[in-house]
């Protein structure tokens, strides 16, 4: 199942049906409703789905956006927040995502789980890598400092996130839906890559692993994981993937580029990707239509047509 995320085109559409029609005309039978879907787009989306023009593979929390929010905001409310009102907002809007997913016949909802309270490590690590310092003692010292701080502060955020996701899993199961816990690119976001197997083991079977290829590649470039080995370790619980490429230059790392345009070795990931996995191209809004087509053709040539 290949799909295209509406993060590519939702910002330039006022009619949800026209938004989905643009995706269908590129050859995609499925679309993911991403975290930039405004409530005003929903009537057209429902019309397109009911007319059989396209199918919806997945939704990315929060979808639709809360009233008054007009920009993509997947971390607007955190499952791990100490503030009870923020967690209540996260619960309420996640339930709306689940309800919307059921209405459009989607299979899975992609979730972000929260974060620990540490600052600026991503920026510092990126700057040092860009300057060629990844193998230096100074870089290793910074990574050790980051790891130590994360480990000391993770227990409570993980506890809060697990509690939230267990409850959401019950709500999703009642609708016949799966949840997908996404690996993240920011080092403060939970669960940390090495914690993912333990995290998922504490959750119901309808909570699955969602692999973001761009995020994993960014972590590999920072020296924190090995992309293919990480995916192999998560393969048993894998349900789907966000597919996009990473380009690095003097200004840093840039993801959400079309597959085949950057540094990801999709051939090395191929042994762990099955036809039944959901494969969602998640591309920058600035990607020209021709490059969307090329990226779609490239990933099918490596992973197969299904």
Helix-strand sequence: EHEHEHEHHHEHEHHEEEHEH
Our estimate of the beta-strand percent is: 15-25%
Task: Report the radius of gyration as a whole number of Å.
Answer: 19 Å
Helix proportion: 40-55%
Whole-number total of structural domains: 1
Q: If you consult CATH, what is the topology? A: TIM Barrel
Summarize the structure.
The chain has 306 residues and is an alpha/beta fold. The protein has helices at residues 16-24, 42-50, 84-104, 121-130, 137-153, 155-174, 196-201, 213-221, 227-234, 266-269, 289-303, and strands spanning 2-5, 30-33, 55-60, 108-111, 178-182, 207-212, 238-243, 245-249, 252-257, 278-281. It has a single domain (2-116, 154-303), classed as TIM Barrel.
Description:
This protein is α/β, with parallel strands linked by helices. It has a single domain, classed as Alpha-Beta Barrel (TIM Barrel). 42% of the residues lie in helices and 16% in strands. It has eleven helices and ten strands. The protein has an eight-stranded parallel beta barrel with strand order 1-2-3-4-5-6-7-10, surrounded by four helices. A two-stranded antiparallel sheet has the order 8-9. α1 (16-24) crosses α2 (42-50). The protein is globular and about 60 Å long. The model has no long low-confidence stretch (mean pLDDT 96).
């Amino acid at each position: 199942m290949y799909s295209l995320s509406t993060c590519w085109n939702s910002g330039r559409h006022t009619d949800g049906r026209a938004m989905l029609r643009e995706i269908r005309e590129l050859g995609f039978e499925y679309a993911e409703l991403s975290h930039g879907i405004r409530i005003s787009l929903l009537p057209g989306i429902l019309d397109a789905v009911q007319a059989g023009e396209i199918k919806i593979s997945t939704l990315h929390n929060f979808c639709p956006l809360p009233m008054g929010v007009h920009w993509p905001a997947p971390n607007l409310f955190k499952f791990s927040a100490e503030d009870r009102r923020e967690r209540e907002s996260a619960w309420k809007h996640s339930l709306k995502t689940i309800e919307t997913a059921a209405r459009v016949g989607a299979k899975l909802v992609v979730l972000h789980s929260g974060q620990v309270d540490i600052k600026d490590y991503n920026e510092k690590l990126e700057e040092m890598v860009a300057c060629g310092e990844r193998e230096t003692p100074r870089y290793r010292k910074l990574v050790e400092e980051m790891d130590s701080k994360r480990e000391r502060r993770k227990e409570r955020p993980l506890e809060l996130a697990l509690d939230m996701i267990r409850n959401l899993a019950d709500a999703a199961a009642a609708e016949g839906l799966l949840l997908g816990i996404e690996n993240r690119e920011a080092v403060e976001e939970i669960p940390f890559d090495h914690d993912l197997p333990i995290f998922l083991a504490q959750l119901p079977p309808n909570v699955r692993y969602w692999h973001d290829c761009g995020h994993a590649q960014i972590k590999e470039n920072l020296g924190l994981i090995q992309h293919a080995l990480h995916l192999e370790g998560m393969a048993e619980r894998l349900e789907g993937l966000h597919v996009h490429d990473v380009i690095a230059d003097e200004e840093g790392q840039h993801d959400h580029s079309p597959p085949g345009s950057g540094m990801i070795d999709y051939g090395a990931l191929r042994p762990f990707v099955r036809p039944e996995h959901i494969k969602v191209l998640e591309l920058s809004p600035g990607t020209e239509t021709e490059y969307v087509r090329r990226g779609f053709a490239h990933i099918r040539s490596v992973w197969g047509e299904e």
